[in-house]
Amino acid sequence: MTRVGSDPGHRTATPAALWLPASVGVAFLVLPLAALLARAPWRTLPAHLAGPVVRTALRLSLVSATAATAVSLLLGVPLAWVLARSSFRGKRLLRALVTVPLVLPPVVGGVALLLAFGRRGVIGRLLDSWFGVSLPFSTAAVVLAEAFVAMPFLVIAVEGALHGVDRRYEEAAVVLGASRWEVFRRVTLPLMAPGVAAGAMLCWARALGEFGATITFAGSYPGRTETVPIAAYLALESDVDGAVALSLVLLAVSVLVLVGLRGRWVSGAIG
Amino acid sequence: MRRPKMRRHGWGTVGLAGALLTAGCAHTGSARSETTGVAGPLTVLAAASLTESFGTLGREFEAAHPGVRVTLSFGASTTLAAQITQGAPADVFAPAAPEPMETVRKAGEIAGDTRTFARNVLAIAVPPGNPGHVTGVADLARPGLRLALCAPQVPCGAAADTVLRAAGVAAHPVTLAKDVKLVLSLVKLGEVDAGLVYRTDVRSAAGTVVGVDIPDATVAVNDYPIGVVSHAPNPVAARAFVDLVLSRTGRTVLRDAGFILP
Lengths: 271, 262
Description:
The complex is a heterodimer.
Chain A: H1 16-39, H2 45-50, H3 52-85, H4 91-103, H5 106-117, H6 124-131, H7 139-164, H8 167-175, H9 180-209, H10 212-217, H11 228-238, H12 240-270
Chain B: E1 6-8, H1 15-24, H2 30-33, E2 40-47, H3 51-64, E3 68-75, H4 77-85, E4 92-94, H5 98-106, E5 110-120, E6 122-126, E7 147-150, H6 155-166, E8 175-177, H7 180-188, E9 194-198, H8 199-204, E10 210-212, E11 222-229, H9 235-246, H10 248-256
Parallel strand pairs in B: 2-3, 2-4, 7-8, 7-9
Antiparallel strand pairs in B: 1-3, 4-11, 5-11, 6-9, 6-10
């Protein structure tokens, strides 16, 4: 997570030589999004957004990203606690392993998931023969792909929040006779709640935008696995306006998440 | 998964092998006679189903024209058409159906005439051992059977739709793949019980998938047109490549791959 310095007293004068590349950098990042807004079919936008393709994809995306965030919270918060508080050999290796999906191309994640959880995969074979469960091409596969890519964001954010928790409160609780679980639930968890919320939000946004791992592991079928990013990608060939409309939806969500993070969590966590 | 755009650069590395291969063939195509003036890079955008045959022809072309470096980009025909109309550098376009070619032509991006150089029909591909016990199109409607089809936007998806409708089969695919080679990969991986692909794809994957013929496959025959792109950076080489595809050499390669020749 980025923490913006909030101390205005330490402002230094910007060297003139930095202004030009900095402005080019801003233009490079902003112009494509401006082009998206300029190209947007504003007049027909309501019709596009109300159309069955967008509605179906949007509903699927919201449900799957939320489920992926729930999975990430369930597994990621304990994982972050282990990384922040436990000490054991190989912890650094464990942290590196957990954060691999952050830098891994999502398509590679999708291939890996397919080889692990596919019907002939290492784990998928057992799921298939024991329970008759086959994950690929299902909405569950979408959730898995999204959680695989997005959970590290949550783990990193929560681990950072845990490092920021003043341990004296926990020690005080122990002195007062609280069990380890009670300390975690009644002291640690409330103290790190803003960090968890920020991590969950980042995780949700990443899950919502997930494309590569999803289309590789879950395929693409309307209503079942065709999320908004996949629908946007497919629409670009046959219906550019539809693709732009879908892109606008994702852009709007991204902006909302940023606003939410800055207004409520980041500055709050600093202050 | 396979990206819709699979580029293959640097045929030069296999140039020697290509030359050796060509030496063994009866090379009577026009390519040999036009060695003068054909040089530089050549970019061919072709339907995914042409991966093997155009791969061979690309090597033949480089062997016949030592100054040419052929870049082949395979993918869904509609993806390639969109790339060309958006200005992607391309010399030759060979989609798996007339419609993507029409899209590109209407955008003013095709120079001169196009020619139909091959035809293709669908077949059912199943993993070895045929776990879904698929013996014909009617089986594709069976509940619980995991079927992969091409997305309806791409030519193999449109053909699948026609074949299934003609057979009165209401199929419920688990996924709609972006191009035919992805359907084939899912069958190879055993992730689906069956996929509708081109007959040529079954032949190219012999040993890793098993083909089930569709008796009425000819209700959907895909015509493959080829043409030179009007903003082609290398129009001379482009025309020479089209000539090679239409030549006896080209026809032999395509027929061996399982295409029907016009």
